[in-house]
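Continued from yesterday's entry.
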Amino acid sequence: MNYRQARWEREIDGETVNEPLLAEKRTETVHHDDSALPEEVTRDELTLPELSEPEIASHYTRLSQMNYSIEHGPYPLGSCTMKYNPKFVEDLAGLDAGAIHPARPDEFAQGTLELLHELQELLAEIGGMDAVTLQPPAGAAGEFTGLLTAQAYHRANGEAERRQEVIVPASAHGTNFASASLAGYDVVEFSSDDEGRVNVDALEAAVGDETAALMLTNPNTLGLFERNIEEIADIVHDAGGLLYYDGANLNALLGRARPGDMGFDIMHYNVHKTFASPHGGGGPGAGPIGVVDHLAEFLPEPHVREDKDGNYELYSPAQSVGKVHGYQGNWLVLLKTYAYISRLGDEGLKDTSSMAVLNANYLANRIDLDIPYEPFHHEFVASAGEQDAAEFAKGMLDYGVHPPTTKWPEIVDEALMTEPTEAVSKEMLDVLAEAFADTSDLSETELADAPTTTATERIDQTSAARNPRLSWQAVERTDD
C-alpha cells in the first residue's frame, strides 16, 4: 500500500473503504433558545470532524479525480444522448443579467420574455410544430404535459371518456408507459416487426375508437428510421387519435427532418440533451412540447406572445391545461438551449446530426459484435453474445471508458445500446472500439472480478442503491 492509500483507506468491519476523515473528532456544545424551536428538532451536542483547510481541499480534489465525467471522455449511453456541454453556454447562464426574479412584471422583463419567445419560435421551426410551451422541467414531464394536452383536446371534442388508451411499442422508453399511466390512460403495447420497426398489422389491430394517442420516437430505440411513418400517422388519425413524438432521438434528425412533417401532432424536446445543457445528474432539465395549430389553445400557462405593439407578455391559452411547473420553466436551461441553437444556426444543427450518424456507424464498423438491426442512424444496439451485458459493461470500465446502456431494448439479447454522439473525436471512437474488443476477449472469471482499476472496485449494486453511505457517520468506526 502506497502513501496515498495509507492516508485515505482504512479497514472497517473487515471491509476496505475510502475514508477521508482520519482526524480527531470534537464535540461542540450547541447553544440555542429553547423557546425558538420544538425540542424534537434540537440537540445539545454536535459531533464534528476536526480537519484543517488543506485536508479538506485535498479530500474534495481527490474525490473529483475519482469521478468519471464528460471531461474525461464520452458516455455512449444509447438513447440518453449524454454529450459534452460547451462551456460558453455555462458562462452565459452564469451572467448577472440572467439572474432575473421570475415574478418580475412583464414590462420589466422584456429581454427575458423576448428570448423565451424567440426560443419558442426556434423550437417550433426545428420540430415542424406550430406552437411550443417551455414549461415542462424534463423530458418525462414533457411527455406527461403532451398527454394532458391530448386529453384536453379529446375532452373539448366530447370524446375524453371514450378515448382511454395510449398505444406504445414494446421497445419504447419506459417513461412512455409511465407518463401514459400517470395521465390516467390504459397502456396498449404492440410488437415490432422482423426488421425492428413498427409492425403495421399489429398497430392496426391495436388502434380503435378508444385510442387517444400513439407514442413513438423516430428513429426508434434501435436507431432505425420508421420508413412507414406517413402510413402510421394515417392509421392513427383515421381512428381519431393523435400521434405523439418522443424527442429522445431528435439528435439524429436535426436540420434534416421534422416530426411535424411526418404527421406528428405533439412532441417533446429534451433540450437538456439535444441542445447540450446538463443531463441527468449534471443538473436540471427542460422538456418543452410542441403542438400543431389545433392543439395550441390547450398548452400550459403562462405562455409568451408578442402583442400588437411589439412588446412581450405572458398569457393563458384559451383552454389551457393549467400550470405544470413554476413560472416560465427552468429558465437557465432554456437560456443555454437558446445560446446553443443560435450559435450553431441551420448549418451547424445539420452538421450535428451528420456527425452523430457518422460517429455511430464508424464505431459500429470498428467493433466485432453482432448488430442485428440496421441501417441505423445515431445509435446502434449490439449484442454481447454469450457474455452477460451487465458484466460486459463492468469489464469496459477497466479500460478507462464509460460503457453503453445494457439489457435494453429487450428485442436484442444481451443488448449494448450505444450512442457516441457527434461530440466524440475519431481518436476517442478508436479508444472505445478497442475497449469493446478487449472486453470481448475476457473470460467469465475475469468479468466476474471487474472492474479492478477504478477508484472503487466491484460493489454490491443492490446494497449501494438501498443503503447508500451519504455521510461520514454512516459507518461505525473502529480504532486502528
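--- second protein ---
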Amino acid sequence: MHKHDQALIFESSTPGRIGYSLPEMDVPVTDIAELIPADYLRVEEPGLPEVSELDIMRHYTALSKRNHGLDSGFYPLGSCTMKYNPKINEVVARFNGFAHLHPLQDESSVQGALELMYDLQQHLKEITGMDEVTLQPAAGAHGEWTGLMLIRAFHESNGDNKRTKVIVPDSAHGTNPASATVAGFETITVKSNEDGLVDLDDLRSVVGEDTAALMLTNPNTLGLFEENILEMAAIIHEAGGKLYYDGANLNAVLSKARPGDMGFDVVHLNLHKTFTGPHGGGGPGSGPVGVKAELIPFLPKPIIDKKGEEYVLDYDRPQSIGRVKPYYGNFGINVRAYTYIRSMGPDGLQAVTENAVLNANYMMRRLAPYYDLPFDKHCKHEFVLSGRRQKKLGVRTLDIAKRLLDFGYHPPTIYFPLNVEECIMIEPTETESKETLDAFIDVMIQIAKEAEDHPEMVQEAPHTTVVGRLDEALAARKPVLRYQKS
C-alpha cells in the first residue's frame, strides 16, 4: 500500500471517531476468562485507526480503483484467457436455490444442484470428446495433478510400475512439470522444432517403457496448433503411455476440434478461463477432469450419476483415487460455467473460437513490423512476439511491460514461454472489440518508437502510477505486509 493510502487511515486517525459499532457482548467477562486461556486474551486495545464510516469507505473505494480487472480495462494476459465474465452468470449463481445450499444436505433436497452438475458433466464430455467427467478439482493445476494420479492408478492397476516418467514440451506451462513432480513422476523435456511444434524425432528418442504420459496443450503455449497430434498420440500409445491434455488453451478450438478426437486420454478444463468463471486474485477456480472409458474406474469419488429420474452421489467406486476436494468441487464456479455454456450454445461456442483466432491474428500482423515475430505463421487464440529488437537498443521486455502501465493496460505475459528470447505473449480473446485492439496496438507501436528515439522513457517507466518502479527482487524477499509509522 502506498504511504499516501496509509496516511488516509492511520495518520488521519482521530480519537473518538467511529466507523462501525459492534453489539454489546452478551457473554459475561468472567465466563470468557474461564473459557479462553489467559494467553489468548488481549490485555491492550488493538492499534486500529479511529475513522468515520465515510473515511473508511473512501479509503477502500480508492484502493479498488487501483486494481485492474476485465471490468476496468483490456487484460491481454497470454495463456490465461482473461476474458469478460457475463453478468448473467453472477445473477444465476446468486439464485437462492444455489447460493443458500449446504453441502451436507440430503441428496433428496438438492436435486436441482445435482441435476445442474450432472448436466454440466454431459456438456463437458461433448465439448472435449471424453467419456466421463469429474467436477471435483479446484483449479487447473489441481486438475493436472488429478489427471496424472488417474494415469498413475491406471498403470499400477495393470502392474506396470516401471512407468515413472512424464514427458513435457519445452514450451509447456510451468504447472505441468510441477504437477508431474507432485504426483510422483520424473519429468523429461521434449524439444520444439524450428516451427515451434513438438519435434517428433526428439519425442521418439525420449519415449520408452518407462513413459507414463505426455502432457500437452493444443494449440500450444506459442499459440500454434500441433498439426502432428495424431502421430504424436500414436507414438505415445504404441509405447503404452497416456496422452494428457492441458485445457488452458481450449478457447482456441471450441466446437472446432475435440481433445478426445485428437487421441487424448485425459483432459483438464479451466472453467475460470474458457467458461468465464471469475479469474484472478487467487481464485476460486474450477478444473474438471475428463477421461476416456478405461480410466473411468479411477475417477475421484463421489461421481454424480443419474438413476432413473433421480440424481445421486455414487461412492461405490473401489478403484477410485479417492476424494481430491472437500464436497463436490467449487459449485458456484460450476454454476457460472453452466450458465455460460447454455446461454452460448454450440453456435455461440464456435463463434468464440472464430473471433478469438481472428483477433489474435489481426493483432499479430499489425504488430509484426515493430517487434520480432519468432514464428511467422497463422496463430490460434494467442501469439508471441520477441523484444530482441528493442533489447539491442537497451530496452527490455520488462521495460515495455512497465511502460504499458502508464496507458492503463495490464501487460501481457512476458518471458514465457522460456524458449523465446524476450518473449511477449498476447491473448486478446474473443470479447474485445476492434477499437480496443487498435488502441492497444497503437500504444505498443508508440512504445516501440520510444525505444528507438527516447529509450530512457521506457527504461524508467512507469511514470503515472502511484508507485514507481519497484525493486522486484527485494519486494519478493522482504515484502512490507503491515503498516509502520515513519
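Residues 76 and 428 are 5 Å apart (CA to CA). The mean pLDDT is 94. Will compare against the first tomorrow.
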